[in-house]
Amino acid sequence: MxxxxxxxPGNAKVEVTVSTSLYRAFLAVTDIMFAYAAxxxxxxxISEMKTPTDxxxxxxxxxxxxxxxxxxxxxxxxxxxxxxxxxxxLGSGGPLMAKVVGLVAxxxxxIVIAGVINGHIACKYIHVRLFRGTEHMHRxxxxxxxxxxVAISLVLWTSAWVIAEAVPVFNNLLSLITSLFGSWFSYxxxxxxxxxxxxxxxxxxxxxxxxxxxxxxxxxxGGCLCGLGLYVSGRAISEEPAGGSFSCANNA
Length: 252
Description:
This is Amino acid transporter transmembrane domain-containing protein. It is a multi-pass membrane protein. The chain starts with a helix and ends in a 13-residue tail after the last helix. The longest helix is centred in the C-terminal third of the chain and has 34 residues, at 206-239. The chain has 2 domains: 1-7 and 20-108 and 167-239, no CATH class; 109-166, no CATH class. The protein has helices spanning 2-7, 22-35, 42-48, 55-81, 95-107, 110-131, 142-166, 170-197, 206-239. α2 packs across α8 and α2 packs across α9. By secondary structure, it is mainly α. The model has no long low-confidence stretch (mean pLDDT 81).
């Protein structure tokens, strides 16, 4: 953000609204959705908290801080780099600064932590599902537990690397992930859970009627975001020039 603000590499013309197509607009929507698609991690965090009832306060605090940071960063970069900002944005600061910022992020473990958190959550879900209700859940053994954990991690991280290399443009990959998973984990399944838990009380009071409408709306939003998101991400991937997959080329 500082580098882009100092160099001002792009057209600094700021437009509050622009005329664009549904395809381009929805690609931007999926990018925003990705930033708030951390719902699969909630259950793990809640289960490991000393006081699980503090989770709503914790979540509100995190969302307030993250929304503020996202807003400030987005405004500064858009004001400085214009609408042609690269994705990821560190590419807008020039090749040298992109390397410097990337090196700092690696040395301070920011990039590693951001990736490891998501990978760890996926590994833990699979691991717990495999060994739930068995004595292995509470006993460390070299071959059954540690070996299984290493195998799960190896499969997931290898799969992630293959997908990331096959879809080399960062924005398009985020859009695909959001459409397949964020649409349901952050919206659709939330509505399904509430409707299932309260299935006998949908119309029992004005409050329940309102919540029923809200959760049916969430379910519809999940389906809409998934369908439209898959269309725009698939179109974006198909329109990208060939040759960027499995290469070290700069795709920003």
